[in-house]
Amino acid sequence: MSPFQILVVTLSGCLFTGSLIAFAKGWASRRECLVWATIWLTAGIFVMWPELTTVIAKRFGIQRGADLILYCAVITMPIGFLMIYARLRALRRELTVLVRRLAIADATGPGASPLATPSEDNSAHGTE
Amino acid sequence: MSDNPSQLASPLPDEVRAAVFVVIPAYNEGPCLASVVEHVRAQYPNVVVVDDGSSDDTLAVAKRSATYALGHIINRGQGAALQTGIEFAVRQGARYIVTFDADGQHRVEDIGVIVDPIRRGACDITLGSRFLDPSGECANMPAVRRFTLRLGVLFTRLVSRVKLTDAHNGLRGFSRAAAEKIDISLDRMAHASELIDFVRHSGLPYREVPVQVRYTDYSLAKGQSSRNALRIVLHYLVGRVMP
Hints:
The structure holds 2 protein chains of 2 kinds. Chain A is mainly alpha-helical. Helices cover 72% and strands 0% of the residues of chain A. In chain B, helix 2 runs parallel beside helix 3 (58-65). Chain B starts with 13 loop residues before the first helix and ends with a helix. Chain B has helices at 14-19, 30-41, 58-65, 78-91, 109-119, 143-160, 176-181, 191-202, 217-222, 226-241; strands at 20-26, 46-52, 68-72, 96-99, 125-129, 172-175, 206-210.
């Protein structure tokens, strides 16, 4: 094994173990842990035995394993960015709801004590 | 704001004016806000100023001059400030809610024009239009601004499929029933287009009414640049596909 392979396989192994520990301890959702564990395991296997990627690539009619990985990255990375962006937008909305609540709670003026009103409800804002 | 507040006439009866809540979102409007609020309060007793995390003394001015002062602890954008003000006004028992810009570009007389069709039951939403103004032209409107606003109207017709003459006027009116349904999710300037979508999807009757917009050096400096319009369009389109 080359030094690069040793480094990446060790790193993948650590992350794979970390995912399993997170799964066992309940630090993250079950699905999330399994997805990450699968990613790190697959990465470790492909770096250790790179020729495996070529075998799989040829099944899909692609000549080289490196090309298969490139194509997969081209598809999955934008999806990943989109998911992160969607999450960021959701967090921004939640932040706005929080800021709004504080503003209404601290409002000044005659009879401005809306926190006591029964219409307090944030369900319309899509909070989790 | 050179007019004397006491000389401004309102066509609305006192009991209607008492039920109107004028919501003014403000961001770094310290130099102009007190004058705007003073003029509005001379006619309408319920003025809600929402300071959107300004770095100047806007919140302090709002607390001194407005009936109700609310402050976002951090800047969230004009759309967010409007939603805060509208929610607050509904909770305070408002029957009519008017949104009004803080930079002095709107006339207090036009609030009556905005509210009148709603109180007569002709519609639930009124949208001010500077292009319906009988005098024909908006004084001092720069050509670039006029062109950008026309593009905005065209964009609204194509995307929101609502025929308006002025799609981005900050002077709007809502009945209580309409205001209770509003949920602005686009925090920043794209909320104007989102509100047009709300008008269409709510199915509530609406109408455009002629209002005047004053273009002063201050309001032009505070207004959105034409270049920023592209960013607003992008925010709006992303917001449509990714709520």
